[in-house]
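Hey, I was hoping to borrow your eyes for a little while. I've been staring at a protein lately and its backbone has me curious. You're getting the sequence in one-letter code plus the fold written as tokens. Would you mind checking whether the tokens look sensible for this chain? Here's the protein in full, and shout if anything looks odd to you:
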Amino acid sequence: MKITKLSILLLFISNLLLAQNKSDITQFNKSLNQFHNVRDFSISKDGKEVYFTIQSPNQEISQLAYIKKESNKWSEPELLSFCDSYMYLEPFLSFDNNRLFFASDRPLNDSISSKKDFDIWYVDRNKENNKWSKPKNIGKPVNSELDQFYPSVSKNNNLYFTMVSPLGIGKDDIYFCKWEGDKYSNPILLSENINSAGYEFNAFISEKEDFLIFSKYKEKDGQGSGDLYISKKDEKGKWKMATNLGIPVNTKYMEYCPFYDETNQILYFTSKRNNLKSRSFNTISDLKKHINDSNNGLSKIYMTPLQIE
């Protein structure tokens, strides 16, 4: 029992060091509250472009959008030009900002009208005109007849993603594909220090591949729903046992879709946290603003300072 209590104490102290005060956790951009569900986040290295997903209340519709910082203000959201009637979600910018990865159920070519399982796709652009290419399927061995989600790429182009496979450890698992200069290796299932018999998903990989932030669902040491966890590599390059990021980043509500800005040490993540409380209202617009702008249980993007050592 002494060892168990000591482990819990160390975890609690670690969580205190990692997490911030509740007041440090804010909505990324309240102008996005015009949408029912906003999730996923990727920001460019210069901090002037943000890509995210807009979804209908029950997720029948899922589209990629972006905003740009102009005169130190964020522009109005716009849809990415290649989005159509299929599902698009989980954008991730490459280190040079010129490749955008995402997940989609779009068919492999335009001559087919029926959607397929979810694959990882990407679009490219050059620095001269900043126009994205047509979507390109990343192909085998990354994609398969199974579903692949949430691509995240390190500085050396190694790819981490979620896959639902009967050969995995649990329900959803996190996999890794090494970039071999002109192609990706076969998917490698990450160890049980990351994956479990439950759900592991939405993994963000750091630029140097020295830490991984991801979601676990309803773990024993969690807050009650989806929680964000972090794992670091040891001196031999092996992933250590993942630890919960703790309160107040995690709540009894769903936290998922992490993105970490290493330059500015800011954690962005999606949450369905809810602290909505009633009060007296003067007008309908006052009521509407209060409901929309509060942490109201809808999927929103949050941000908080977070130092990872």
Q: What stands out?
A: Residues 151 and 186 are 15 Å apart (CA to CA). The chain is about 10% helix and 35% strand. The mean pLDDT is 91. The first strand starts at residue 26 and ends at 27.
